[in-house]
């Protein structure tokens, strides 16, 4: 039997979909861990980004963390935190995985929030202040609405990276979908390795698509319905002619 | 002197980054309902001076009073809500419709919906805006429309004071001229106290009650009416800044109705040619205006009259151009130099004859 057939068999086998080590449990672990790490990262990074972008103070922090984040080896952090979290409560491997993912989530959220808030046209902000908006009103009525698409895009970047990287947790003894891959390696079970990898990839893509939709929903309107509709109509004939030439 | 609406007392602003003061010891007063234009080269501190009035820039020393209260002793936000503010780039909220933009300050002030709506429709009629524009977003407006919405927004809560920083600087000359005319028209009705910043001396001359010409460091070189600045520049700096054509610019400020027009040769259709020719000779003209019961019918020339018995025998030719009391002296001058006869005929809109203007008369007006 070829590999793809074997992977399919593994993915559809009933015993892999039940029990405490089945796909649903591992998937749920994976999602929970990713969500917790991303949310806690956002709780730190979002207010910091808003503060830095609005006040335009400590901007080097946002830039440095952004750059640092790109160079941050998640695997290294996992190893580094493994030893000194051994005595912490909770399942083995939970804390190293969580810390590594939490640190991974911060840079994109911080950088995007900062850039989004700071990027609001300075004259518009000055006009708002000149009209008598308080700092909080400048933030909530102008800067945050206009920065929302970028902020959500930062969340998307963070979440997708975290979902993909959470796979490493299995190396430190934690669960999640990485379990299938790591265990597959140790027993030489190729279908399980590929099956696990496929599940992680699917979850990452689903995360990307989900946040992409959210991004579209929260982007504030800057054109009225009428002209937006007009623009949507335009590509119509182009698609039609393509179909025509293909037939 | 009426009570000053805005008073600056020995105001100095020094920015941390430089040793030199942006504004040094500036004092000036703006009367209630007056339009004062701050004009000067870049770096003269005109914008800094303006921004100190609503505390977007905090003065290093000195006092600024708006309506009798020291602005530094007021909550900056409360102060700003009572002062309309317009900047060159306007800064409309891009994610809010025109109506929502205009409602910004009333909303911040907690007006109820009905009152806001009422005010917006008032603004629409004051600014002659298109109702359909209200639901559009700023990116869908033309430059001129944005500018008008920006000024309307600043006036939404009916503040007694307006600060305007080159509000018409970003539009093309034709639109700018229209916006200036509309601004003047609205200001005539609303009588706001306005501090207006520009680097365009012609704009200043056109819209100001008084102009403050600033030099580097916020030094006032001259603070006077446009007419006075053109007639009597205080020094070389002002003379240079005002530029060439000072005389022509002054003529543009003066209306024909402000000066006494001259008598010209006039006859009626019922008069005899002989009388008409005598009248014509008295002025040393070779043509004469034909007026019936005050109404200007046109003109006839000497050769026509010489062949006729009565004035009515000759068909009067219409004037190709005449000026009215509302015309500026500059327009009258244009009419003089482009007419074959070197004379501008003055009449009302309804063709009622008033008299004539000559080059000599106009140049006398500039000299005195």
Structure description:
- The complex is a heterodimer of chains A (247) and B (368).
- Chain A has 247 residues and is mostly helical.
- Helix content of chain A is 77%, strand content 0%.
- Mean pLDDT of chain A is 86; it is low at 227-247.
- By secondary structure, chain B is an alpha/beta fold.
- In chain B, the strands form 4 sheets. Chain B has a 6-stranded mixed beta sheet, sandwiched between helices.
- In chain B, helix 11 (246-253) packs across helix 14.
- The chains are: A mainly alpha (247), B alpha/beta (368).
- Chain A binds chain B through residues 121, 123-134, 137, 141-142, 145-146, 220-224, 227, and chain B through 54, 56, 77-82, 85, 87-95, 97, 104-105, 108, 135-140, 153-154, 163.
In short:
With 247 residues, chain A is mainly α. Chain A is 77% helix and 0% strand.
The greatest interface between two protein chains, and residues involved on each side, is: A-B, 24 and 31 residues
Helix-and-strand structural type of chain A: mainly alpha
Secondary-structure element series of chain A: HHHHHHHHHHH
CATH homologous superfamily name of chain A? MetI-like
Poorly predicted sequence stretches spanning 5 or more consecutive residues of chain A = 227-247
| Rg calc of chain A | 23 Å
Query: Quick check: average pLDDT of chain B?
Result: 89
> Count of helices of chain B?
15
CATH topology of chain A: MetI-like fold
Helix percent of chain B reads 25-40%
Low-confidence stretches of chain B: none
What is the percentage of strand-forming residues of chain B?
15-25%
* Main sheet strand line-up of chain B: 6-7-8-3-9-10
Overall mean pLDDT score of chain A? 86
- Computed over alpha carbons, the radius of gyration of chain B is 26 Å
């Amino acid at each position: 039997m070829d590999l793809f057939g074997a992977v399919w068999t593994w993915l559809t086998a009933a015993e892999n979909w039940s029990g405490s080590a089945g796909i649903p449990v591992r998937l749920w672990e994976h999602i929970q861990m990713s969500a917790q790490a991303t949310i806690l990262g956002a709780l730190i990074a979002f207010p910091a980004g808003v503060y830095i972008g609005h006040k335009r103070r400590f901007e080097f922090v946002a830039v440095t963390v952004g750059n640092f984040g790109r160079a941050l080896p998640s695997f290294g952090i996992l190893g580094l935190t493994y030893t000194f979290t051994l005595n912490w409560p909770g399942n083995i491997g939970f804390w190293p995985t969580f810390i590594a993912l939490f640190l991974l989530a911060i840079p994109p959220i911080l950088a995007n929030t900062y850039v989004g808030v700071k990027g609001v046209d300075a004259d518009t902000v000055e006009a708002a202040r000149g009209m008598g908006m308080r700092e909080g009103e400048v933030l909530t009525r102008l800067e945050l609405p206009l920065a929302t698409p970028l902020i959500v895009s930062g969340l998307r970047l963070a979440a997708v990276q975290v979902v993909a990287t959470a796979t490493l947790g299995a190396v430190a003894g934690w669960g999640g979908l990485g379990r299938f891959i790591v265990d597959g390696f140790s027993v030489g079970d190729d279908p399980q390795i590929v099956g696990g990898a496929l599940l992680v990839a699917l979850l990452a893509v689903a995360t990307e698509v989900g946040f992409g939709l959210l991004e579209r929903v929260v982007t504030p309107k800057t054109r009225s319905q009428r002209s937006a509709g007009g623009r949507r109509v335009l590509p119509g004939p182009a698609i039609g002619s393509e179909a025509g030439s293909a037939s | 002197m009426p009570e000053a609406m805005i008073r600056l007392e020995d105001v100095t602003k020094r920015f941390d980054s430089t040793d030199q003061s942006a504004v040094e010891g500036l004092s000036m007063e703006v009367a209630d309902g007056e339009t004062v234009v701050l004009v000067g080269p870049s770096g003269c501190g005109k914008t800094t001076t303006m921004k100190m009035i609503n505390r977007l820039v905090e003065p290093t020393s000195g006092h600024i009073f708006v309506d009798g209260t020291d602005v530094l002793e007021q909550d900056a936000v409360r102060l700003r809500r009572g002062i309309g503010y317009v900047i060159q780039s306007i800064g409309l909220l891009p994610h809010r419709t025109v109506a929502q933009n205009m409602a910004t300050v009333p909303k911040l002030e907690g007006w109820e919906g009905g009152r806001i709506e009422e005010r917006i429709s008032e603004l629409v009629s004051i600014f002659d805006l298109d109702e359909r524009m209200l639901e559009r977003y700023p990116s869908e407006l033309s430059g001129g429309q944005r500018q008008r919405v920006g000024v309307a927004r600043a006036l939404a809560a009916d503040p007694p004071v307006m600060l305007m920083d080159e509000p018409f600087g970003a539009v093309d000359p034709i639109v700018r001229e229209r916006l200036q005319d509309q601004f003047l028209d609205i200001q005539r009705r609303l009588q706001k106290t306005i501090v207006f910043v520009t680097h365009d001396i012609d704009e200043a001359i056109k819209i100001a009650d008084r102009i403050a010409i600033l030099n580097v460091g916020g030094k006032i070189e001259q603070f006077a009416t446009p007419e006075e600045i053109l007639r009597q520049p205080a020094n070389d700096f002002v003379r240079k800044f005002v530029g060439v054509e000072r005389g022509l610019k002054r003529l543009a400020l003066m209306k024909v109705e402000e000066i006494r027009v001259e008598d010209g040769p006039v006859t009626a259709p019922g008069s005899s040619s002989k009388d008409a020719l005598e009248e014509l000779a008295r002025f040393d003209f070779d043509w004469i205006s034909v007026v019936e019961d005050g109404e200007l019918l046109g003109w006839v020339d000497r050769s026509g009259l010489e062949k006729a018995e009565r004035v009515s025998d000759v068909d009067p030719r219409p004037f190709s151009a005449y000026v009215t009391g509302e015309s500026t002296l500059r327009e009258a001058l244009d009419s003089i130099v482009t007419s074959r006869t070197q004379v501008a005929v003055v009449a009302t809109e309804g063709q009622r004859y008033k008299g004539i203007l000559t080059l000599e008369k106009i140049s006398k007006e500039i000299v005195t």
